[in-house]
Write a structure and sequence with these properties.
Length: 274
């Protein structure tokens, strides 16, 4: 096994420092005042105003920041669970079952990945939400994203590689029904891929800005539109923007800290099994 050279290690360390510095600086400014934000050179050590800045953030009536955090957690959690569940079922069907039109349906799913449907479909989707009376409600940012073409394609490829056909046939010979095969044979082998898909979908949904900005009202925001409201209400209050952004990315850090090693370990285990 080849060991990394000193040059490689130095290069990785520099890349890590350059990538982490903006995040570090964001948290530093969340503990500072606006005067510190305008200092040259900028401060690089934490201050003592984090509690005060968080209190001001939560007290900003135009932003409804706490509501935005809770709404984002509900939306991202619901969409993630739905996408993972539907994608694993569809991936199992496309990879291991034979039925008429399978290739055509999978091709249509690939087409949805090639075309920016969200940007091109904003107007008709908004008209649909208006006709249903869902504008300003969280279901308007949940239901359109419960199925994800990328998730279906990813799990189809993962099932094809991680689950041997012989294993499925052996379970069928033993008398297992199709759903039984999915639940007892296929699903345990898909956990590494499911973890990665869940992480990607959660991050994408949590960071979604355009559609919630269009369809939700300012009194019922998600976290990204709350930050936009902070920018409107505090045009030059950089500390509020830094504090709000730091609070919005904190749940993503928690997810990475809690599940990052499990996801990487699961992927390596799945790769070895495949």
């Amino acid at each position: 096994m080849n060991r990394a050279t000193i040059t490689t290690r130095i290069g990785l360390a520099v890349a890590l420092a350059l990538s982490a510095f903006p995040i570090y600086y964001m948290f530093i400014m969340a503990t500072r005042s606006n005067e510190d934000a305008l200092d040259t050179p900028p401060p690089l050590l934490p201050g003592g105003l984090l509690g005060e800045n968080v209190e001001r953030l939560l007290a900003t009536e135009d932003a409804h920041f706490l509501t935005g955090l809770l709404n984002s957690a509900v939306v991202a959690g619901t969409v993630t669970l739905s996408v993972v569940a539907i994608s694993t079922l569809a991936g199992f069907a496309f990879a291991k079952l034979r039925f008429p039109g399978a290739r055509l349906l999978l091709g249509l799913i690939l087409v949805t990945m090639m075309v920016p449907l969200q940007q091109m479909g904003v107007v008709p989707l908004y008209e649909l939400m208006v006709s249903l009376g869902w504008t300003g409600q969280l279901k308007a940012v949940i239901l359109p994203f419960l199925v994800n073409g990328f998730g279906v394609f990813m799990m189809t490829q993962y099932v094809a590689q991680a689950v041997p056909d012989e294993l499925v046939e052996a379970a069928r010979v033993d008398g297992a029904a199709t759903l039984g095969i999915y639940w007892r044979v296929v699903l345990p082998a898909l956990r590494p891929g499911m973890a990665v898909l869940a992480l990607l979908v959660f991050m994408q949904t949590w960071n979604e800005f355009l559609w919630p900005l269009i369809v939700l009202n300012p009194d019922n925001p998600v976290v990204q539109t709350s930050i936009a409201a902070l920018n409107s209400a505090h045009g030059t209050d950089y500390v509020m923007l830094f504090t709000g952004t730091a609070a919005s990315v904190l749940p993503l850090f928690v997810v990475f800290v809690l599940f990052g090693r499990q996801i990487v370990g699961g992927l390596m285990e799945g790769a070895v099994k495949a």
